[in-house]
Request: fold
Amino acid sequence: MKIKTKIALRYSIVTAILMTVFAAIIYFVSAHDRETEFYDDLYKEGVSKANLYFEAKASPEIMHSIYKNNIEYIDEVEIAIYDTKFNLMYHDAKDIDIVKETPELINYIIQSKKNINFYLKQHQVVGFIFHHNNSQYVITAVAYDGYGYAKLHRLTINLIILTFICIILSFALGYFLARRALKPVSEISDRMKDITANNLHLRLLNYNEHDEFGELATSFNKALDIIESSFESQKMFVSNVSHELRTPLAALIGEIDYALLKERTIQDYIKTLQNSKYDASRLIKLVNGLLDLAKASYEESRISMTEIRIDEVVLDARKDVLKADPQYKIDIQLAPLTEDDTALIIEGNEYLLKTAFSNLMENNCKFSENNTSTVKISSEQNAICISFSDTGIGILPEDMENIFKPFYRGKNKEFITGNGIGLALVDKVIKIHKGQIGINSAIGVVTTFYIRFHTRDHHVISE
Reply:
């Protein structure tokens, strides 16, 4: 069921409840007024006939004649007159006698000293004391309010019809108003259907940003911005990966084709295998870099975090780098000392941090003529600072803002081979650990990467 239909139905239900309550109140108030008014009419009719009997000295025959003539056209009131000793003085229809007065009833009316009203089935009865010539008489008047009940019945029918008409009108009005109010939603839905992977540049425009639908359109546009950016990043990523994979694969196939072209000497085959191994190593390194970049791109909730010591992770990274390239020189400097071991402990993922530190050490060594990296670890209040320095060619100012983008290689890329994954991976890992990373570079002199992690409070002891 659509929202506008639900709104119309709920609007109709509310209207039905209100109309039912309103109709019930009108009915019960009207029924009470009919009853009260008819009791008053019975009293007045009883007083009139009593006056006609006592004051006008009308004979019983005349009064019976009036009663019989009227009863043919309307529900005439039946009057009975008794004295206080239960002697019947006059009765409009003694043969019918609807009330069937008893001494107990007469005595109850006398003792009540006020009008009494009650029902006999559908007939209403009023009993009261009438005073004449210092004497008391008991008058009873009874009748069926046919006219009043007929009016009440017509009122009931009219209220039911009016209630149903109001419900139908409220549903139609509610549907119209809901459709009109939700029209922007339909427009947004139609426009969203037009947006596909091939035209993610389209946006929802011309909406008032200060109402709910404008806020919804703004949220959709922000989501589309993120999706478009993700698609562009994905296209660029696939394009770059394809390019990076194609180069070593093409070189590897070329070496194999060269070896198969004709018979070679053992030395030629050895050289071909060495070149093939080099290309395969480049492929493995690229694939490992892509896997590490993918791991660093996981949601933080999916990355396992434990307490680790930064200095131990740095030492492990140094060990891995030297194992892969023994000619590298990595100098680790730890200062100042702390009064307890907790100063160098953070919550982190050991594998990712070791991978990031290894990349920075390798970059230092690759871009330094003496293949050297200097790593300094220091602790401050609530923070751990690590710097990775080289004495290499440096980074140009125009490359600084793009240096952490995946597959980006600066103008110094001719100096050494690479694929542009390492620093992008480092940036993601540091951000996952809520750290900050910065660069300070002087062309031809030194390049230093600064990393800062927040940690628990500790006291620093100077050497």
